[in-house]
Design goal:
mainly alpha; about 250 residues
Length: about 250
């Protein structure tokens, strides 16, 4: 990989790591960059998953105070996302590459809609839901497993989706929910990355390393200063990049 494409991938990793920590959906920035530097859609998705998981854990570490006291939730919900992530990543590898190329514009479109309407939907559902509990209920566990499967197959906006489910099923402060979201997203991407490494296909190791380095920096930035960034500006950038990715894939 030449110099400027390498710089672009690293910077995309920083942005994606920051945005994943703050709101989720950083893949909508890093995935199009990987496409732009020449990776196929399937290789870009696998490489993106491998490169972004370290940033989720650095982001979760930055929220370690909010994670305190959530041990009873972390264990069962981690089991849910691990099961879901294995399922989603195996589906990605077993289905024909053409299927992913056909499905991914739809998934990006869904992710863009979640970015636009996710917070409003979350607030509305939280206000009208009688299902919210401080404990891990069966609906929360199942919803988290679905998020894990989605993230293992294609990670864009999995954090937004998870926060939506937390708004419905988990009664707690949004900052503590966000901390838990970052940790679970890290496990989703880590498990999927392990599956991809074992299979050993479709990985661009140079791009994955650059993304990983960038996402680690982004996770630290997101935890420290990300909450000061205007959420509306972040969402506008994500939506524009997501739409550009859909056009790129279709054209």
């Amino acid at each position: 990989m030449s110099f400027w494409p390498a710089v672009a991938v690293f910077v995309a990793g920083v942005w994606a790591g920051t945005i994943n920590t703050v709101v989720g959906s950083g893949t909508l920035l890093s995935f199009p960059v990987l496409l732009a530097v020449g990776l196929s859609p399937l290789s870009a998705n696998v490489t993106n998953t491998l490169g972004l998981f370290p940033g989720s854990f650095t982001g979760a570490y930055g929220y370690r105070r909010e994670l305190a006291g959530q041990g009873e939730r972390i264990v069962p919900l981690t089991a849910a996302v691990v099961l879901g992530s294995v399922t989603g990543s195996l589906l990605l590898l077993k289905l024909p590459p053409g299927a992913f190329k056909a499905i991914v514009p739809v998934l990006i479109g869904l992710a863009v809609l979640l970015v636009i309407f996710g917070r409003r939907l979350q607030r509305w559902l939280g206000a009208h839901s009688a299902l919210a509990s401080e404990r891990v209920t069966a609906p929360l566990w199942c919803a988290t497993a679905v998020t894990g499967a989605y993230g293992g197959y294609f990670g864009a906006a999995q954090g937004v989706l998870q926060m939506g489910f937390f708004g419905i099923f988990l009664a707690d402060d949004i900052q503590r929910q966000n901390a838990l979201k970052n940790l679970l997203a890290g496990f989703v991407n880590l498990v999927a990355a392990i599956v991809f490494v074992i299979v050993g296909k479709h990985i661009d190791w140079a791009a994955a390393g650059l993304l990983a380095a960038g996402s680690i920096c982004g996770g630290v930035l997101g935890a420290r200063i990300g909450h000061r960034l205007p959420p509306g500006v972040l969402r506008a950038v994500i939506v524009l990049v997501g739409v550009a990715a859909i056009i790129r894939l279709l054209v």
